[in-house]
Recover the amino acids of this structure.
């Protein structure tokens, strides 16, 4: 365990052996650790030089040679310097070295990112790995000043919904225009429907389509991010960041085409929140059901997404039809539009 502080295996063996004894000689420690006495002696002298061990007693008698190494020194007894005093500087040294390594890592990573961004004429930057993809996604959303265009498809892979919600809220708070086209399969749970409704109430514009060709986010029509096939990166999530170019223009046109063909959802949800609740007005829960049905979601799937039974969904639809005074769901959609329910 002390190798992280710069002690080798043999040094650690001698140190820990001495830890269990008040004092010991080199020969004592050699017997306990299985090392040779000369090696044990050498290690002890090195530990003394490093301040980890102190000489406790030396032999009272002995003969000295011209180098000062005598039998008295070899028969000396040693004790540990208190670890709290001796090991603390080593820990600080290792911690500082780690900090320097982290700083160097950050600089190298940023240098690589800048170099990669200049490849292909500065048009495309390849990003590989969960953390890198999530980082670039946050940069795009948090750096947007005017507009964000987003395609949402399926379950998140590299960027969690929590991170998406935080970046989304930050953009809306800054007054950034936020338009989203979502595939039906994105609305896979009651929680997602609630989050989407809250975002729309905060100013996000949302439309739904049956399918989308890809996930995408476009920031200020200057940068876009599109995921790559995971098989191209050894199974790691990866993406490309597209800078101003004809390719970026094509992605923006793709978004606008899908937006024009998509079906609005919760387009005026603020009115639902602000209108007083009366017997002649549908409840918020009924409007959630209605909004899902109007974009083509079946009763069974709406029930699953809202955490309800199919019978409850049907009962809420029946009550909406009674409020509207209509006999069919087609008439209900027409009345909901005329009455400003959605």
């Amino acid at each position: 365990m002390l190798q992280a502080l710069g002690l080798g295996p043999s040094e650690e063996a001698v140190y820990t052996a001495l830890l269990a004894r008040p004092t010991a000689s080199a020969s004592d420690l050699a017997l306990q650790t299985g090392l040779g006495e000369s090696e044990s002696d050498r290690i002890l002298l090195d530990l003394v030089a490093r301040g980890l061990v102190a000489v406790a007693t030396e032999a009272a008698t002995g003969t000295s040679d011209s180098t000062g190494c005598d039998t008295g020194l070899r028969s000396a007894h040693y004790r540990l310097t208190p670890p709290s005093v001796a090991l603390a500087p080593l820990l600080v040294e290792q911690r500082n070295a780690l900090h320097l390594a982290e700083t160097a890592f950050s600089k190298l990573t940023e240098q690589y990112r800048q170099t990669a961004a200049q490849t292909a004429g500065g048009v495309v930057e390849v990003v590989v790995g969960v953390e890198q993809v999530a980082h670039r996604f946050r940069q795009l959303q948090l750096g947007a000043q005017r507009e964000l265009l987003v395609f949402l498809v399926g379950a998140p892979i590299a960027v969690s919904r929590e991170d998406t919600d935080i970046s989304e809220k930050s953009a809306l708070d800054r007054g950034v225009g936020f338009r989203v086209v979502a595939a039906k399969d994105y609305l896979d749970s009651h929680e997602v429907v609630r989050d989407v409704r809250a975002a729309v109430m905060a100013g996000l514009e949302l439309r739904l389509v049956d399918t989308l060709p890809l996930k995408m986010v476009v920031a200020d029509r200057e940068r876009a991010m599109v995921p790559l096939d995971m098989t191209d990166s050894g199974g790691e999530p990866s993406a490309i960041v597209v800078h101003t170019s004809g390719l970026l223009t094509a992605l923006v046109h793709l978004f606008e085409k899908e937006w024009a063909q998509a079906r609005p959802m919760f387009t005026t949800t603020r009115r639902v929140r602000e209108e007083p609740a009366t017997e002649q007005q549908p409840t918020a829960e009924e409007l959630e059901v209605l909004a899902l049905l109007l974009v083509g979601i079946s009763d069974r799937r709406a029930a699953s997404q809202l955490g309800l039974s199919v019978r409850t969904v049907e009962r809420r639809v029946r009550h909406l039809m009674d409020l509207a005074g209509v006999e069919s769901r087609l008439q209900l959609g027409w009345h909901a539009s005329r009455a400003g329910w959605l």
